[in-house]
C-alpha cells in the first residue's frame, strides 16, 4: 500500500511518541516509580462530585443530554465569567467548547497554518504543539525559553519579524510542559503586543494555570490582547478530570463561524452530556474545594521532589522551580545522556522522560522531565534516591 | 486580520452549513414540523440502560474511568466480535476507537489525502464527507449514485483508473445520507476488488447499517476486502446515542501506529469513562432490545412517510425506498426549486433540507431530503400534507 501521502513527520513524532508510550506503560509496573507521566493524581480526582453531577443531569435531563445539541449555554457562560475573573473579559459567545486542549490546538493550527508556512514555537515544548506545527508540515522557527521567566521575547520578536511572516505562534504561559517555568507578567504583555504588531495569530496554550500552588496569580497573555490576535486554549483535563475530555477556546467573535465549521469537520461537536455534567459540577461550587485540595497535594509533592533533588543531586544537577502544574525540568552535567541512562534507571526501578523528547531541534541530551503530581511524597523521595544512584554511577 | 491562510472551502461548506443550522434550529419551534433533521428520536434513546451503565461504571471503577487511559480492551473486543458477526473477521487490535464516525473520516482522510490530491466521492453525499475531501482542498472526482442499488460502479472504476490515481475514495454502503439507498451486495464485492486493483484506500462510512428495518442484512464492503484497502468507519451515535460521541475504525494492523499518532494530534484519546459505559451497555445485552424497538418505530415512521408521499405527491414526485436509516430522498418536477420553495414551506409550518445542499457539483434543485426518524407518524403525515400544498401551489 502506498503511504507516500502520509502527512506526518513520522520520524520525529512516531519515535518520540512510541518511546513515551513505553515509558508511560511502565507506570503500571508497581515496582517502578514513574516520574515519567503527565497525569493528575488518580486518588485526588473529584470522583464524588462528578458522580453526583452525572446522576443529577441524567435524572433531570437525560434525553436532551444524550442527543445532538448546540453548545451548552450555561457552560459557555460559566467559562466566560471564569475568564473574566482572570482578566480576560469575554462574552459567552466567544467561548468555543472543545474536546480538551489538544483539540483547541488542532483547530486553531488548521485555521491559520497551511503546509509549508512558518510557525513560531519554543525550542523545547509539549509534543502536542510540535504535532500541530512541525507534524503538519509547517516550517518551524524556534525560540529559546529562559528557565526563570519563560520564552525569550527578543527571539520571539525576531521570529515574528522575519519574512515571510509566520502564520502562527504558540506559547505556554503557566507551568510550562516540560519546563515547569512560567512567563513573567511583563513578557505576557509584550507577547500580546508583538502578536498584534506583526499581525501573527498567537495561541496561548494554558492547561495548567488553575494548578497554581505558589506565587501570585498572573493574568493570561489574552488579558493583554487588545487587537484580537491572541487565541486562548483552556482545558478541564488537569483541573477536573482527563476523561471528561473537555476544554475551550476564547477567540475573536468574527472567527467563530470558521472555527465551528472546522470543528464539525473533525468530530461534529462535544458531548451534550459531558458539557452538562461539567456545568453542573462548576455551578454547584465543586471546583474550588477540589482545586484547593489538589494544589495543596501538588505543592507537597513538588516540595518533596525539590528537596530530594537538592539532597541527592544538588552537586551535579540544576532544576526549575515551578509555582504550579505537574513538572520539574532537570539539567544534568553535559556528559550525561538521559536516553542512554534510561535502561539503567528502569533496572533501578525509576522512570522519567528524557528531555530531548521535547527538543524540537534535538540536543538537550542531559535533561529530563520529572512529574510530581501522581506520586506520594515518600515515593518521590525514593524515586529520586534511585535516580541519583544511577546518575552518580554514570558520572 | 489576515485570514488568507484559512484552509476551508468557505464558499461551499460555510453556506451549506449555516443554512442547515438554521433549518435544524427550526426543529425547536413546536409549530413547525421539521423533516430537516438527522437526529434519532429523543424519546427512543436508551436512557434507562445508559443511566444504569453510568452508575455501574462510576460505582466500580470511577478513578480509572476519569483518568487518561489506553483504548478500553473489552470495548475493542466487543466491536471485533460484532464486526466478525457481520462478515468482517477482525481482531480487537484492528479496532481503533474514535469520537464518532466523523472523526473516523477526519483521521483517515488526513492519513491518505494531501491537499490538491484527487479523491473519489459520490456526487450527492453527506456534507461531512465533502468537508474532509473538497473542504480540505482535495481535487474531487464525483460519481453518480443509482437510486435503486447505490453508487455507479462503472463510474467508480473510471474515477479510480484515471491518472493521477486518486489518493482516497469514500462510499456509504447502507441507507445513504441523504439518498436513503443501499449499495447492492454485488456492488460491494466489486468496490472492494476495485480498491485493491487500483490500490486506492476506500473509506466505507457506515453509521447506519444497524438501523435496518426491512430487507436482508448485507455484509459491509470491508467483508469483501482481501487486500486491506478498505477502511471501515462505524459509529454508536445513531445506534446508541449521539452524545456518547463514540465510533470506531477497522483498519489494517500495519496502519494502527500512524492512526494513533494522528488521532493524538487531534484530541489525544476517547474518554475512558464513555468507552467503559458503552462497553457496559453492550455487554449487558442492552443493544439488541434497543435496536428492535428503535427499528420498529423507524419502520412505522418510514412507512408513514412513504404512504403520505404516495397520497399527496404521488403524481408530481418520485422517492427512494429505504430499508433502514433515517432518510428518504424526494425528486420533484424539474421546474421546482426546493431552495426557493423553502420560505413558503416554513410559512406553512413544515421544513426539509433542499437536496442541492448535498450536491457536490451543484444542481439537483428539484430534490429534498426528508427525515422520518424523529417524528411520530401523525406528524409526518401532517407535514407531508403541508409540504404537498406548498409544492402544488408552485407547480
- How much is the average pLDDT of chain A? 93
Strand content of chain A: 5-15%
- Low-pLDDT segments, ≥5 res of chain A: 1-15
The interface involving the most residues is between:
A-B, 80 and 79 residues
What's the end-to-end separation of chain A, in Å?
Answer: 48 Å
The secondary-structure element order of chain A is: HEHHEHEHEEEHEHEEEHHHEEHEEEH
- Largest sheet of chain A at a glance? 7 strands, mixed
Strands side by side in the biggest sheet of chain A:
2-10-9-8-7-3-4
User: Which class of secondary structure composition applies to the elements of chain A?
Assistant: alpha/beta
Give a quick rundown of the structure.
With 395 residues, chain A is α/β, with parallel strands linked by helices. In chain A, 43% of the residues lie in helices and 14% in strands.
Amino acid at each position: 500500500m502506498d503511504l507516500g501521502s502520509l502527512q506526518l513527520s513520522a520520524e520525529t513524532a512516531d519515535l518520540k511518541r512510541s518511546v513515551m508510550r513505553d515509558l508511560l506503560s511502565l507506570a503500571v509496573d508497581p515496582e517502578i516509580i514513574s516520574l515519567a507521566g503527565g497525569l493528575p493524581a488518580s486518588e485526588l480526582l473529584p470522583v464524588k462530585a462528578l458522580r453526583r453531577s452525572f446522576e443529577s443531569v441524567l435524572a433531570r435531563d437525560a434525553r436532551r443530554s444524550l442527543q445532538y445539541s448546540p453548545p451548552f449555554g450555561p457552560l459557555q457562560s460559566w467559562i466566560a465569567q471564569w475568564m473574566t475573573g482572570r482578566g480576560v473579559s469575554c462574552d459567552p459567545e466567544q467561548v468555543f467548547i472543545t474536546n480538551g486542549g489538544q483539540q483547541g490546538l488542532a483547530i486553531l493550527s488548521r485555521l491559520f497554518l497551511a503546509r509549508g508556512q512558518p510557525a513560531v514555537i519554543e525550542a523545547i515544548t509539549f509534543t502536542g504543539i510540535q504535532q500541530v506545527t512541525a507534524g503538519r508540515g509547517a516550517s518551524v522557527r524556534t525560540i529559546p525559553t529562559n528557565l526563570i521567566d519563560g520564552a525569550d521575547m527578543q527571539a520571539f520578536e525576531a521570529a515574528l519579524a522575519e519574512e515571510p511572516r509566520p502564520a502562527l505562534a504558540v506559547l505556554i504561559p503557566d507551568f510550562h510542559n516540560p519546563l515547569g517555568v512560567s512567563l513573567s507578567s511583563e513578557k505576557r504583555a509584550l507577547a500580546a503586543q508583538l502578536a498584534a504588531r506583526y499581525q501573527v495569530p498567537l495561541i496561548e496554550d494554558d492547561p495548567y494555570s488553575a494548578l497554581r500552588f505558589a506565587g501570585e496569580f498572573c493574568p493570561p497573555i489574552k488579558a493583554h490582547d487588545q487587537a484580537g490576535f491572541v487565541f486562548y486554549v483552556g482545558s478541564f483535563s488537569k483541573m477536573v478530570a482527563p476523561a471528561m475530555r473537555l476544554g475551550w477556546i476564547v477567540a475573536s467573535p468574527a472567527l467563530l463561524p470558521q472555527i465551528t465549521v472546522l470543528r464539525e469537520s473533525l468530530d461534529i461537536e462535544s458531548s451534550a452530556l459531558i458539557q452538562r455534567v461539567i456545568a453542573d459540577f462548576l455551578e454547584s461550587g465543586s471546583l474550588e474545594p477540589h482545586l484547593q485540595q489538589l494544589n495543596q497535594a501538588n505543592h507537597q509533592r513538588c516540595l518533596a521532589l525539590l528537596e530530594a533533588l537538592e539532597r541527592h543531586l544538588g552537586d551535579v544537577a540544576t532544576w526549575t522551580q515551578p509555582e504550579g502544574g505537574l513538572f520539574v525540568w532537570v539539567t544534568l552535567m553535559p556528559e550525561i545522556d538521559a536516553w542512554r541512562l534510561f535502561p539503567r534507571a528502569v533496572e533501578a526501578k525509576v522512570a522519567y522522560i528524557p528531555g530531548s523528547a521535547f527538543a524540537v531541534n534535538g540536543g538537550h541530551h542531559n535533561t529530563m522531565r520529572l512529574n510530581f503530581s501522581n506520586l506520594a511524597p515518600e515515593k518521590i523521595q525514593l524515586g529520586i534516591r534511585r535516580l541519583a544512584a544511577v546518575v552518580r554511577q554514570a558520572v
